[in-house]
Amino acid sequence: MVGKGSRSGFAGRAVAVILGTMAALIMAGTIGTDGLSAQDSGLGGRWSIALELGEIPMAGSFKAGISVGYHVSDEAWIGFAYQLPDSIRRGRHSFNAQGTGLEGLTGTREGVGRRAYLQARLRPTRWSPYLSLGVVFNDRDTETMVFDSRSREVDGATFSGPMEVTVSRPPGVRPALGLGYEYTSGGGFTAFVEWAGWWLRGAPTPEIRFLGSPPKSRFASGLTTRIEDDFTGSPFNTYHLFQLGIGYTR
């Protein structure tokens, strides 16, 4: 079993390698002779495969995945991405926990479900950012927030004692629209970064459970409304997919 510290260290090195590779490839294409040969060789009719991360793993999360695709031309690509489920421990740093407005957070844990994306990438030129559109699938994501024992007040109602709040986004399939950048060198090495999601309609209403406060109490009712308003207002809670990867085009 890999410990949290070693896992976070490996995650940091993985991100550094990916970002460093992306920078090197882009610089090679910008100032090197290989970049000139890359411009002369078209991408049309070539296949690509890549390994990717679905999250920048600041809290030890990988959300590792793979993507495969086909270059219809220099300006158009169609493909499919799949990301594995993962777990995250955010400690006292959580956007959803901040949205509760409660003090005394001791830690959070999150189970992140599978991600899948059937997509097309379109761009005006080979060297420009691309528009991404397609259909995204997100499995259930669940975050549990643990609060210490104290007296709290929400909308005039009080509750005393420890408390756990679980917030879940149900699984769903949605259209997706996003933006990204992909670079392929003359040797076929590829690097890309992208975010796409169903941000036009906002995030779905989450499922919320309380351990500690009775679910029908006025305190829980007020807290539920507060969490729902914050959750649905964040684009990061929409059905979406983030990709940071390197691969090969042949």
Task: Reconstruct the topology from this structure.
Elements: H1 4-31, H2 33-40, E1 47-53, E2 64-71, E3 76-83, E4 86-89, H3 95-100, E5 105-112, E6 115-122, E7 130-138, E8 141-154, E9 157-169, E10 172-184, E11 189-197, E12 207-211, H4 218-232, E13 240-249
Antiparallel strand pairs: 1-2, 1-13, 2-3, 3-6, 4-5, 5-8, 6-7, 7-10, 8-9, 9-12, 10-11, 11-13
Helix pairs in contact: 1-2
Tell me about the largest β-sheet: 8 strands, antiparallel, barrel
Please state the structural category.
alpha+beta
| Terminal residue distance | 36 Å
- Percentage of residues in DSSP E strands: over 45%
Low-confidence stretches: 1-15, 28-40
Portion of residues within helices: 10-25%
SSE succession: HHEEEEHEEEEEEEEHE
Task: State Rg.
Answer: 21 Å
The overall average pLDDT, rounded, is 83
Helical stretch tally: 4
Total number of beta strands: 13
- Total tally of structural domains: 1
CATH A-level architecture: Beta Barrel
Main β-sheet, spatial strand arrangement: 1-2-3-6-7-10-11-13
